[in-house]
Amino acid sequence: MKNNIFLWSCAALMVAAATLLAPRPGQAQETPPALNAQQQEAVEALVRQYLLEHPEVIVESLQSFERRQQEAETQRQREALIAEAETLTNDPQAPVLGNPEGDVTLVEFFDYRCPYCKRMTGILAELMESDPQLRVVMKEFPILSQESVMAAKAALAAERQGKYEAFHFALMEDGGGFTEDEIMAVADSVGLDEARLRADMQDPAIEAALRLNHATAEKIGITGTPAFIVGDTLMPGALSLEQLRSVITAARAKQS
Questions:
Q1: Backbone angles phi, psi at 141, to 5 degrees
Q2: Residue 176 has pLDDT above 80, yes or no
Q3: Which percentage of the chain shows pLDDT scores above 90?
Q4: Are residues 58 and 129 in the same domain?
Q5: How far apart, in whole angstroms, are the C-alpha atoms of residue 100 and residue 229?
Q6: Pairing state between β 96-98 and 104-110
């Protein structure tokens, strides 16, 4: 990418230098002829000399290009978040924690095998406990392994027995892997009916819910876990309690 920008910068300078050969005001405005070999060599020499004397031009060009690219991506992402708002906040297949009628919705994309997601578990619990008006939408986003997929399916199946929250936190706090036996052991520890859980895990609707989460993540530019969303703000990576509270406070201020 940076090599391309360098070439573009050189081309721009060549065009500017070529204008020196264009007709002056008052002269006939005819289409200038193509540069001959001697003129081409002279322009290239001029560009090279200028760049050697002013290398900061390339640095400024790179910085300007990267800034514009970042601004464009931020805008594209914001537009995607607005377009996907209903799926993000009101998907009937996505479990909701905290206050279902809360005034601010926090969405989390996560993977049970992600160490950073595990690190966020306690912070999320503290956040919900300290903010009774917070609504939290859980987006199962298994991307690390087939064990992640199995754990996600089990969690969505646990929702049908009304034990999603207990099962979710138990899985996140469990120090083992996520083999089928280990997942069922966690399920048993929170009082889930294992036979029903296994049957529900095979429901095509659960597979469809996971596909929807992956499609939504792709549209809004989520490539890793955890990722948090409040309104049209996407925050990738593990965050502190203070960072989450700050964005939630800002969202409430917008509503007032």
A1: -135, 70
A2: no
A3: 66
A4: no
A5: 16
A6: unpaired
- Residue 156 and residue 91 share a domain: yes
Beta carbons within 10 angstroms of residue 121's beta carbon: 16
- Per-residue pLDDT tens over the stretch 104-161: 999 999 999 999 999 999 999 999 999 999 999 999 999 999 999 999 999 999 999 9
Domain limits at 45?
2-21+37-83
Q: Would you say residue 30 lies in a domain?
A: no
Parallel/antiparallel/unpaired status of strands 96-98 and 134-140: antiparallel
Return d(Cα 181, Cα 194) in angstroms, integer.
11
Q: How far is CA 29 from the centre of its chain?
A: 52
Write down the residue that tokens 């399916």 correspond to.
153
Note whether residue 32 is domain-resident. Answer: no
Residue 35: CB atoms within 10 Å: 16
DSSP per-residue codes, 68-109: HHHHHHHHHHHHHHHHTHHHHHH-TTS-EEE-TT-SEEEEEE
Q: What is the pTM of this model?
A: 0.73
Same-domain check for residues 14 and 131: no
Residues 105, 90: Cα–Cα separation, whole Å: 10
113 and 225 belong to one structural domain: yes
Say which amino acid occupies 26: G
Dihedral class, residue 137 (left if φ above 0, else alpha if ψ from -120 to 50, else beta): beta
